[in-house]
């Protein structure tokens, strides 16, 4: 059986959900769950093979809804557990799948009602291990939870890191769970009767200190670790990774240890030696608008405040490190 959960340590890493876009609403859509992952909800697109447990589950709305609720409780417990305890939870998920095969598929024909009852019982079993606010997240309607998660990174660990960062910025306990108070941070603002206010332009003069209402980030979010074309994607490109700027996969001198702050629209990068901010603003098409003080390495290549760098096709960023001189 699943071991008792350990208390969750405060999650700590980086990021806004829409790292390359101006708001959380621009985060990429969630992919279909991978049924190979223990505990994941059944994948119904493409349709499972006829006669399987998954096929019966996907064809019955009650069974499918019950399975999604079970999967929500499983994911909450997975995050609550210490990493060393998660293999036990995964083994329990595999055992439950085997139980469905043996108990809810008599004579080779899957029984949707049996599946619905079994998944509901398994959910109750998982819920009893959850502590607040994990239980608050797990008890949310699956459609409402999916709507929240669609505004966050798809990968579970990255999503939890984003949630913790939002909580920390709002002065909430950094649990990484989407409780009600945290969900309010992720939801879009209520529509204004006179229309939403326009996006505020960047400051006329680059700030030399973090603007109000910004959140400190220990490093750039992974979504910024892309290649941005200064001239062309076939030429050396700019990348923001870790805590600094890389050009042509090499660190740029004087731009490697930024103090990073962000609000819902922009990243403000302050050089380690002091000075005005370099400002990055994600665009809806994934490109990056630069303003504030332009790093000399980019300014020498024609980049000026207001320049928009096109995001290149996804390719791994290969960071090059200069070899150390040999000792004599």
From TrEMBL:
Annotated ranges, domain Lysozyme inhibitor LprI-like N-terminal:
49-126
Q: Where is this region: Disordered?
A: 25-46, 134-153, 187-213
Q: Where is the composition biased (Basic and acidic residues)?
A: 134-143
Q: Where does the UniProt annotation place the signal sequence?
A: 1-25
InterPro entries per the UniProt record, alphabetical = LprI-like_N
Q: Could you confirm whether the keyword Signal appears in this record?
A: yes
Keyword annotations for this protein, in alphabetical order, are: Signal
Which residue windows does the record flag with biased composition (Pro residues)?
188-213
User: What is the protein name for this chain?
Assistant: DUF1311 domain-containing protein
Native organism is Roseomonas indoligenes
């Amino acid at each position: 059986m699943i071991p008792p959960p350990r208390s969750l340590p405060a999650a700590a890493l980086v990021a806004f959900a829409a790292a390359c876009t101006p708001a959380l609403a621009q985060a990429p859509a969630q992919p279909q769950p991978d049924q190979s992952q223990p505990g994941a909800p059944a994948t119904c697109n493409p349709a499972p093979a006829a006669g399987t447990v998954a096929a019966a589950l996907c064809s019955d709305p009650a069974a499918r809804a019950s399975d999604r609720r079970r999967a929500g409780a499983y994911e909450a417990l997975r995050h609550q557990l210490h990493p060393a305890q998660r293999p036990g939870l995964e083994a329990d998920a595999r055992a439950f799948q085997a139980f469905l095969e043996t108990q809810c598929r008599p004579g080779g024909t899957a029984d949707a009602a049996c599946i619905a009852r079994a998944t509901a019982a398994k959910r109750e079993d998982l819920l009893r291990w959850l502590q607040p606010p994990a239980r608050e997240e797990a008890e949310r309607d699956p459609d409402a939870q999916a709507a929240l998660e669609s505004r966050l990174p798809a990968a579970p660990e990255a999503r939890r890191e984003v949630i913790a960062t939002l909580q920390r910025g709002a002065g909430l306990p950094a649990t990484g769970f989407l409780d009600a108070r945290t969900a309010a941070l992720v939801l879009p603002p209520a529509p204004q009767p006179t229309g939403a206010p326009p996006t505020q332009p960047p400051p006329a003069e680059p700030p030399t200190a973090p603007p109000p209402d910004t959140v400190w980030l220990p490093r750039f979010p992974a979504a910024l670790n892309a290649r941005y074309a200064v001239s062309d994607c076939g030429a050396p490109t700019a990348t923001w990774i870790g805590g600094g700027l890389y050009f042509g996969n090499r660190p740029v001198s004087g731009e490697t240890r930024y103090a990073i702050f962000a609000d819902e629209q922009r990243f403000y990068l302050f050089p380690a030696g002091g000075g005005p901010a370099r400002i990055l603003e994600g665009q809806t098409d994934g490109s990056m608008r630069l303003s504030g003080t332009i790093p000399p390495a980019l300014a020498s290549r024609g980049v000026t405040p207001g320049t928009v760098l096109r995001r290149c096709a996804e390719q791994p960023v290969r960071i090059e490190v200069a070899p150390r001189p040999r000792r004599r």
